[in-house]
Design a protein that fits this description.
The complex is a heterodimer of chains A (347) and B (236). Chain A contains 18 helices and no strands. The N and C termini of chain A lie far apart (57 Å). In chain B, a hairpin with a 2-residue loop joins strand 1 and strand 2. Classes of the chains: A mainly alpha (347), B alpha+beta (236).
Chain lengths: 347, 236
């Protein structure tokens, strides 16, 4: 009898009406994944800085006046004309000004200052730089472009940010959140801040980002499955043999000598990406998958120098971790640190 | 609303990411280039060749044309990132240009390929030379094959490389360049089974293209930018 009741209860939970109610509550009650979104903000900003700062000495050659020869192709990509004027190809001064503004926006994004305003501006400058040349865009730029557009409607600064610190400081002083200037209210969709509509927008972005992740891994793994290198376990060797990616040649050569690592790494990458949609359904396998993928992306970053792509993908992967899980992990780490500290003191 | 957005975006993104289909063109008309995306990173197989762009130029000394040595542009750009954990994006520049150029070259027919490996410069009959006009060149090459659009696509990239080679050559050799040409040098890593063999399994291949005459000299500002890069990475 009790089994029957339990079964009924389980099936009852899956009734369409109740599933819909739970979905509506999940969407509107609170913003989800706020810690992960804050980490995504930091990882995206780090990826951008790792591109912009080392490329600083070559900026005019790559995107400025020195890239004028690419224009016959670049102008055919269909980007909005005014966007192509942001980074000047005729004035080194105005190019440097725009590059400086982009760097400033990335730093503000990193520290989470006025993030709601900085995010769309950053998107404009980021895209404007990348479309000045058709030769330099890679998958990481594409991920950042699409996800940053979605992220305009999400809360990226709930944690680890100046915005969060300012909110806490006002609250500690017993002050209400700072009212927005009237002219801002007229233009900004105010429902994006707080309230159920704000939560809905934020959570919709979370769903879209998770879908984007699913798409990338699914398409990529299905294509890999149609080739020979990944199934044969040799793909990592060939990737490390491409001159373009020899940023640390000694390290690449050392990995090429480690045959089991090449075989195991190639197969593990293919299997994890291919099974990703299933593995993320159950929490323990989801977190193992995230660990494996993070390791894979860090390997790509270090060995192939593809830092922006790798950090962007790690940021997206982490969106699958719930706020409650981050808090539980932080509590566990703090308890271990405290225990170690007190055991040292007593010994 | 959320589900509508998700389904709508799924439709758009799959149209771009899946193999080409009749759906892609109408979707691209509305959502490209912002939402265009392809996720064939290292898939289905990893590229098994290393392409390099090498440039040669000619300038006049006492009325006579002087040819330079070949300069490996890609090698200079790679040199900028070797041993640097957080590299500049300069390593993508000429290597990606070469890849796009070779793809367009391969889209031509055999006779067309033979023609584009020859010069695009014509004598005027008065001891001087001029670049063959675009329209004439397109007709010439189009007559040798089937696809006019493939010819136009190739010549557009050829024109771009002419500009690039002229700027690079001017900065590298310090002369006012009159003619440029380039070759694509390709070497191949050994197969996995022979990865520890120091002898290359296959000989490198080299495809040399004919001389081109830039319509205009690169500006002083552009030459200064290229000179700066060459001084830093080629130690000249």
């Amino acid at each position: 009898m009790s089994v029957q009741t339990g079964t009924q209860g389980r099936w009852g939970r899956l009734a369409p009406g109740r599933v819909w109610d739970r979905f509506v509550t999940w969407m509107s009650a609170a913003p989800r994944g706020t810690i992960s979104f804050s980490l995504l903000r930091i990882l995206f900003a780090m990826g951008m800085l790792i591109l912009l700062v080392p490329s600083w000495p070559d900026r005019h050659y790559l995107w400025g006046a020195g890239s004028w020869w690419v224009d016959p192709e670049a102008s055919r990509r269909g980007w909005w004309e005014p966007l192509m004027l942001v980074f000047s190809k005729t004035s080194a001064f105005w190019f440097d000004m725009a590059y400086g503004v982009l760097l400033l926006l990335v730093v503000l994004f990193l520290i989470g200052y006025r993030t709601r305003w900085v995010t769309p501006l950053l998107l404009v400058f980021w895209v404007a730089l990348s479309i000045n040349s058709t030769l330099l865009v890679n998958a990481g730029d594409t991920v950042m472009r699409i996800v940053l557009f979605f992220a305009i409607f999400a809360d990226l600064s709930a944690h680890f940010s100046v915005d969060a610190w300012r909110r806490r400081r006002r609250a500690a002083r017993g002050l209400a959140p700072r009212p927005r200037p009237r002219w801002v209210s007229r233009w900004l969709p105010h429902w994006l801040e707080g309230g159920w509509l704000g939560n809905w927008a934020h959570n919709t972005v979370l769903i879209l980002c998770c879908y984007q992740l699913l798409l990338i891994y699914s398409v990529s793994s299905l294509l890999k499955l149609s080739g020979q290198d990944w199934l044969g376990g040799t793909a990592i060797y060939y990737a490390l043999s491409i001159d373009e990616f020899h940023v640390l040649p000694m390290l690449s050569a050392a990995v090429i000598w480690a045959t089991p690592a090449i075989l195991f790494g190639s197969w593990l990458t293919l299997a994890t990406q291919l099974l990703f949609p299933v593995l993320v359904l159950w929490r323990p396998t989801r977190y193992i998958t995230i660990l494996v993928l993070t390791g894979m992306h860090l390997g790509i970053a270090v060995l192939l120098g593809l830092w922006p792509f790798s950090l962007a993908m790690i940021g997206l992967d982490l969106l699958l971790v719930r706020d409650a899980s981050w808090r539980k992990a932080a509590t566990w780490v703090m308890a271990r640190v405290t225990a170690q500290g007190s055991s040292r003191r007593t010994s | 609303m959320t589900l509508a957005l998700l389904v709508g975006y799924a439709f758009v993104s799959v149209a771009f990411a899946a193999p080409p289909s009749p759906v892609r063109a109408p979707v691209a008309a509305v959502f490209a280039p912002f939402f265009s995306q392809q996720w064939n990173v290292f898939a289905p197989d990893v590229l098994k060749s290393n392409r390099r762009l090498q440039v040669q130029v000619q300038w006049r000394e006492h009325g006579e044309l002087v040819a330079s040595d070949w300069v490996d542009v890609t090698d200079i750009e790679f040199g900028a990132v070797r041993g640097i954990p957080f590299p500049s994006r300069i390593s993508k520049n000429s290597v990606n240009a070469t890849e796009a150029y070779v793809d367009r070259y391969r889209a031509l027919d055999d006779e067309q390929r033979k023609r584009v490996r020859d010069t695009f410069i014509a004598a005027t009959g008065e001891g001087t030379f001029r670049p063959i006009p675009d329209a004439e060149l397109i007709d010439q090459i189009d007559d040798l094959g089937d696809s006019r659009s493939a010819v136009v696509r190739f010549l557009r990239y050829d024109y771009m490389l002419t500009r690039f080679a002229a700027a690079f050559g001017t900065a590298y050799f310090g002369h006012e360049v009159e003619r440029v040409r380039w070759r694509v040098h390709v070497d191949y890593p050994n197969d996995f089974d022979l990865r520890f063999d120091p002898e290359p399994q296959r000989e490198p291949s080299v495809t040399t293209f004919g001389w081109r005459q830039p319509a205009r000299a690169p500006s002083a500002e552009v030459v200064a930018i290229y000179t700066d890069v060459i001084e830093r990475y080629a130690n000249r």
